Amino acid sequence: MITLHINDQQVQARERWTVLETARQYGIDIPTLCYHEAVSPSGACRLCMVELREGEWSKLVASCIYPVARGLQVYTQTERVNNVRRWVLEMLIAACPASPEIRSLAKQYGVTETRFPIHNPEETCTVCGLCSRICEEVVGLAAIATVERGVHKKVGAPFLRPTDVCVACGCCVTICPTGAMEKIFDTVRQAPKQSLVRLAG
Ligand code: SF4
Ligand code: SF4
Ligand code: FES
Fold first, then answer.
1. What are phi and psi of 146, to 5 degrees?
2. pTM of the complete model
3. DSSP-assigned letters across all residues of 131-145
4. Which terminus of the chain has fewer CB atoms gathered within 10 Å of its CB, N or C?
5. What are the C-alpha distances in Å from 52 to residues 63, 78, 151?
6. What ligand 1 atom has the least distance to the C-alpha of 34?
7. What residues have CB less than 8 Å from 175, skipping those under 6 apart?
8. Ligand 3 nearest atom to the CA of residue 45, by list position
9. Alpha carbon of 189 to those of 18, 147, 167, 172: distances in Å?
């Protein structure tokens, strides 16, 4: 076991655990968006940032991908941490302004507006990649992936054309933190939504 500290509390972790996994074992809350224990972590959203300190030195790391080490001093609620989370939440509001889940998460940090440009007021997908990771890693199919780049980045079947690789298992819909996948699913299978609701429900 590895001994480290989180918020000045001594905790113990197994080799290869991440800081996030360790914090969760001790009921210490760290917000996440692109993390789910069913799939490998990607470190994409940066919402789970925490601060590591050693004397005068400190740095911010994404806790879902940062491995534990002996003697680490981790802080989950410092001013630096909360500033970066607010920044990330502003970016998320701009990226998917129509998502009530993101709005509600942002509100917990006092974020209700964004200074970043909104490209699609109807967007609810954060492009967190959980849906494509579960399809590839758990279902074993890779029927969907992240396509295009920059502000046009989205999730869908290859070339955004319907694919019969998808078996309509509904795992991507279940794991989606914003509900966006339910709508996207229609374009993946080009099948009636009712079939998905039955399978996912
Ligand atoms: S559809 Fe959902 S799970 Fe997939 S990238 Fe968008 S928000 Fe994430
Ligand atoms: S419903 Fe289709 S796209 Fe979604 S996880 Fe299952 S196989 Fe993959
Ligand atoms: S939850 Fe860690 S980067 Fe998204």
1. -80, 130
2. 0.90
3. HHHHIIIIIS----E
4. C
5. 10, 10, 31
6. 8
7. 36, 38, 39, 130, 131, 134, 181
8. 4
9. 36, 16, 8, 13
Q: What is the DSSP letter of 15?
A: T
CB atoms near residue 135 (< 10 Å): 25
Q: Which helix (H) or strand (E) holds 5?
A: strand 2-6
Residue nearest to atom 2 of ligand 2 (CA): 166
Residue-level pLDDT, tens digit, the chain, 201 residues: 999 999 999 999 999 999 999 999 999 999 999 999 999 999 999 999 999 998 889 999 999 999 999 999 999 999 999 999 999 999 999 999 999 999 999 999 999 999 999 999 999 999 999 999 999 999 999 999 998 887 788 899 988 888 889 999 999 999 999 999 999 998 898 655 555 545 444
**Backbone CA torsion sign across 12, 38, 181, 174:** negative
DSSP states of 20-33: HHHHHHTT-----S
Tell whether ligand 3 has an atom less than 6 A from the beta carbon of residue 85.
Answer: no
What is d(CA 60, CA 66) in angstroms, rounded to the nearest whole number? Answer: 10
